[in-house]
Each structure stands twice: as C-alpha cells, then as structure tokens.
Amino acid sequence: MKESTTKGMISLDGFGGLVYDVGVVEYTVREDESFRYTFTPNWAVIDLLEPPLFQGVPGFDLSLRKELYVRDNITPTFVSERAPSENREGLWELLAACDMEYLDKIEWLIRTDTRYIGDGLYVRALGEGNAPTEADVSEAIAGAANSEQAAREVLATLCQGGALLLDGEPVTDDARKVLHDVLLRMYEKAHRSREEKRIAGVRAAAERGAYAGRKRKPIDELLLREAVELYEARAIDAEEAAAKLGVSASTFFRRLKELRAQS
C-alpha cells in the first residue's frame, strides 16, 4: 500500500536566540486514507528543560518516558490546536499562502509563519540547523566565564541534543543538566549586560537628537479587541487578524500580550 510521510522538528525558543529541539513529529498517510502520527522525544534536550518554559507536548504523556509515541488515526492535541482542520473556513486560502495544494498538517506547520502562543512550541523542517552534532567543549567551557559566544556555542549543542566530549570523554546526562544550567546563567548575564549597554547607547544618542526611534503605530482598541476575539475563537489566524488591523503578525502578538496583561 502506498504511503507518504512528513517529518518535522518540534522546537522551543529559549533565552537569547537559543532553540531547543524537543523531538521529531512524523505524519504518515496511506492511500486508504488511514494515517499515523508518531513523536520521538529528544530526551537529551527535554531533560534540560523546566517549567514554565517547557510543560510537555500536548497529547503525549512524557511521564511514561517512551522512546516513541504512536497515534493511529488520531490527530494529537499538539497538531490539532495549531493546524487548520479539514473543514476550516478559508482553508484553501491558508494552503495557498503556504504554497500548498492539499492539507498536510505537519507540512503546514513547517511552512506557516503563524505561531501558536499557548506554549511556545512550533515545528520546523528537519535539517534547519537541528542535526545533532558531537563537539569537544573543553576550550569553550574554559572560556565561557568571559565569553558570551563561547557559552552560546556549548548551549547550542546541548539544545540540539548533540553529544558533548570533555577532554575526549563523553559528558554524562546528569553533568549535561548541570552544565546547561551553569552556562545558561552565565549566558543570560552576559547577554543582558550587552543589551543594557546597547540600550544605554541608544538613549544617549536620543538625548543628543541622533536617534529618534520608531513611532508606535496607533491601533483602534475596539478593532483590536474584535480581532483578538476572532483569533482566540480560531475563526481567523494571526495573519488574518494582523491584516484586519493593518499591522504585522509580530505587532499583533505584542498588542495581544499587552491586552492580556491589562485584563
């Protein structure tokens, strides 16, 4: 029986541009229209993460510690709450926007610019910088205390689940967690220090009249609330909500966050 398979990496953005690769989601559909979803957890990465940044993958009970989760003819919650359904109004427009001729939910999640904001998880194509590597991090660890870039290099390998060697010897799972937490604190401190200096420079330039900044685009609050209600009811996606307001999707998400903070 013929079948086709689509794979993607479930990822999560961390501090300062770090990207955690949580695991591989796979969708297989057969010519009799039966289908299967599987999720292969990247435990080497998941074990680094803690709430509130990461609280699991909806539809998969990670407390079972399986190497493979299988769902036959059932769409996992992770997929259903992010991808459009087969009977979604405006489905063909959503597909066309992603240059797709038929609905493959994993492929759509890979291609779309729309982000589900409930938990921060999203899907990207395999190979987009998420191939696990092996690295000897002896020199990088030695320089991490004084180098933001050195700390980031080790953290990036940890975030992919890549194998770490220290003076040629493998780093144990327990040591990976300790190393991650220590280096992350160093990285956060260095990153924030650099940002504070940058902001101070911008403010000083503004005081001299050399930097005017970017004006905030005004949005009618009633229109914003209407767009948010439609978005939260899943009647429209983020791109459509942004289009209604005449702003970018990123601006829509910022205003959505501000609105929620007020309520």
**Outline, from the CA principal axes?**
flat
Strand order of the largest sheet: 4-3-2-1-5
Whole-number mean pLDDT: 87
**What's the number of structural domains?**
3
Helices, by number, come to: 10
Query: Would you list the SSEs in sequence order as H and E?
Result: EEEHEHHHEEHHEEHHHH
Class of secondary structure makeup: alpha+beta
N-to-C CA distance: 53 Å
Counting DSSP E segments of at least 2 residues, the number of strands comes to 8
Most strands sheet: 5 strands, antiparallel
Give Rg in angstroms: 22 Å
Q: Give the percentage of residues in beta strands.
A: 15-25%
- Segments where pLDDT lies below 50 for 5+ residues? none
Q: Indicate the percent of residues in helices.
A: 40-55%
Task: State the assembly state of the protein chains.
Answer: single chain
What does this structure look like?
The model has no long low-confidence stretch (mean pLDDT 87). This protein has 263 residues and is α+β, with helices and mostly antiparallel strands. The protein is 42% helix and 18% strand. It has helices at residues 43-46, 77-80, 91-97, 105-111, 138-144, 148-160, 173-207, 221-232, 238-245, 249-262; strands at residues 3-13, 19-30, 35-41, 69-72, 121-125, 134-136, 163-166, 169-170. The protein is flat. The protein has 3 domains: 3-125, no CATH class; 134-207, no CATH class; 221-262. The chain has a 5-stranded antiparallel beta sheet with strand order 4-3-2-1-5, with helices on both faces. Strands 6-7-8 form a 3-stranded mixed beta sheet. A hairpin with a 5-residue loop joins strand 1 (3-13) and strand 2 (19-30).
